[in-house]
Design goal:
about 290 residues; mainly alpha; 9 helices; about 75% helix
């Protein structure tokens, strides 16, 4: 037996080739993992981008639909109604002018009557159209001049019910000049007298005079309203108030210019002359006109 023990086995260190293989393998696994994550991230980005685009497009379409429903379409409808309303008013005014012109040019009563029978239904149609449009129109879209045309036409043809609806819209407007406010109240007074309510009618006329103010500039307008009141009072046999207001008119007319005084006094004089023989006697100072 040998005195020497066998030497322990020694493990050889890994060769360079083995270390390189391991390194390459780890590196390859890392690249594969990165590539896998890269593809997943890109897909996720595309998915998120598409979802965001769809959401944005949906919001745009929703807002566009809301704008069309609540803003654009109502505004377009409002403009269309206003245009149709004004067309009806202008048509009625034009037809009335044609009828007056024909009456002045023609001296034959039969022709005048025939012309009136043709034009009056057209005016009534325009009034009905305007009234239908008026129901859905805002107050700020309607002017008192348009309403005055409709009031006058409805009053002239004797449709007091329709005239009342127009008067109500006109009197309810407050953002107007004193002259326009006075005209609305004057027509209200005429309508009330025609509806057999003289006390309220006279109150409306008095308010129409007072709203003009007691100034030299408003004298002609106040005299015009007072002249209309005097005629209404005598037509409805409101004799006492008629006599008092006639005297007021005579006194007021003295401050007018010659042409203004001539126009108004002749209007009142002609109307009262036609009413002679009714219940109210002719004013004592009638000849002063």
């Amino acid at each position: 037996m040998s005195d020497f023990a066998p030497a322990p086995a020694v493990t050889a260190p890994p060769t360079a080739l083995t270390s390189t293989d391991v390194l390459l393998k780890n590196f390859g696994d890392r690249i594969g993992e990165l590539e896998k994550n890269s593809h997943k991230t890109m897909f996720k980005k595309l998915t998120e981008s598409a979802s965001a685009s769809a959401l944005f497009l949906g919001l745009v379409l929703t807002f566009a639909s809301l704008h069309s429903t609540f803003i654009a379409k109502p505004e377009a409808d409002r403009i269309a109604r206003l245009s149709q309303f004004n067309q009806a008013v202008n048509s009625a005014a034009k037809l009335r002018q044609e009828l007056i012109r024909f009456s002045l040019d023609s001296s034959t009563p039969q022709l005048q009557l025939a012309m009136a029978s043709v034009i009056t239904p057209q005016i009534l149609n325009d009034i009905a159209t305007a009234r239908a449009m008026l129901k859905d129109m805002r107050d700020e879209d309607i002017g008192i001049p348009q309403l005055l045309i409709l009031i006058n036409e409805a009053y002239t043809v004797g449709d007091f019910q329709i005239a009342k609806s127009f008067v109500g819209r006109a009197v309810a407007k407050t953002d107007v000049t004193p002259n326009l406010r006075s005209e609305a109240l004057r027509y209200q007074g005429k309508l009330l007298y025609a509806s057999a309510d003289p006390s309220k009618g006279r109150a409306a006329f008095i308010e129409a005079i007072n709203v003009l103010g007691d100034t030299a500039q408003s004298l002609a307008s106040r005299a015009y309203v007072l002249a209309d009141l005097v005629v209404a009072e005598y037509m409805t046999r409101d004799c006492d108030n008629g006599a008092q207001d006639f005297q007021r008119f005579v006194d007021m007319s003295k401050g007018l210019y010659d042409q203004q005084r001539l126009q108004l006094t002749m209007t009142v004089k002609d109307a009262l002359t036609q009413l002679q023989g009714r219940d109210c006697p002719v004013p004592a100072n009638f000849s002063s006109l």
